[in-house]
Design a protein that fits this description.
There is one protein chain. It contains 9 helices and 6 strands; from the N terminus they run E-H-H-H-H-H-E-H-E-H-E-H-E-E-H. 39% of the residues are buried.
Length: 230
């Protein structure tokens, strides 16, 4: 692991890290699962965290044993339907949905001149950042439509560093899902897992919730890891 002083950029997932939009995604997917006759469970919802739209739809169909029941065109139609439902739910989104401590953390990063990019699988992430009043703090955003692979593949985090003209090794990525942590690790960036450390045990650094995520706390954890590595 690099030293804290060598870190130049931060790469953010959106849903479940910056804001509670994961709740809106879950509601929209739940609506579609009901329509498709697939029983919604907490386990299924957890599998979809951090996963792109078409990959999520395929997971739902596989979960219900319906992976061979629809053509690609039909799948695209259902994915668009889910997105329409999601956008309707987003109408009420505002700054109150920002997770505890994250607005202050993002502002602190900007004040200390760190570069910041968004590594979200959601095509609606620019709209969400605008509604949250945080768009101005993000130097770059990865367009998920340009990616060949979804999380847990490292492509999105490799690209999130590249758009900042940085090496992944110079960056810290923040995730709340195991697929996202795997993606960060595969890129070579330092991974910060936010949530149950038993679920996110592959993360380089773990915090139980967003309120614990500060520059000082990240530095302390990196210093501890450095001592252990040495």
């Amino acid at each position: 692991m690099v030293k804290f002083a060598q870190v130049k950029g931060f790469l953010f997932d959106l849903d479940g890290v910056i804001a509670n939009t994961s709740v809106y995604h879950a509601k929209a997917w739940h609506q579609l699962a009901d329509e498709l006759g697939v029983t919604w469970t907490e386990d299924l919802g957890n599998q979809l965290k951090g996963v792109g739209r078409m990959d999520s739809l395929n997971l739902i169909l596989k979960y219900g044993g319906k992976e061979n029941d629809y053509t690609e065109d039909e799948k695209i139609k259902y994915a668009e339907e889910k997105n329409d439902n999601y956008l309707k739910l987003l109408d009420t989104l505002d700054k109150s949905e920002i997770l505890p401590g994250m607005e202050d953390f993002i502002k602190d990063l900007a004040a200390h001149h760190y570069l910041i990019s968004l590594a979200s699988s959601s095509k609606n992430s620019p709209l969400v950042l605008e509604k949250l009043g945080l768009a101005q703090y993000f130097d770059e955003k990865v367009d998920p439509a340009t990616l060949k692979h979804g999380k847990p593949d490292p492509e999105i985090y490799t690209r999130a560093a590249e758009v900042l003209n940085l090496k992944p090794e110079e960056c810290i990525g923040l995730e709340d899902a195991s697929a996202g942590v795997t993606s960060i690790n595969g890129s070579g960036a330092i991974s910060v897992g936010i949530g149950d450390p038993k679920v996110l045990h592959e993360a380089d650094i773990n915090f139980n919730d967003t309120s614990e995520v500060t520059l000082d706390n990240i530095k302390k954890e990196m210093d501890k890891k450095k001592v252990l590595d040495d």
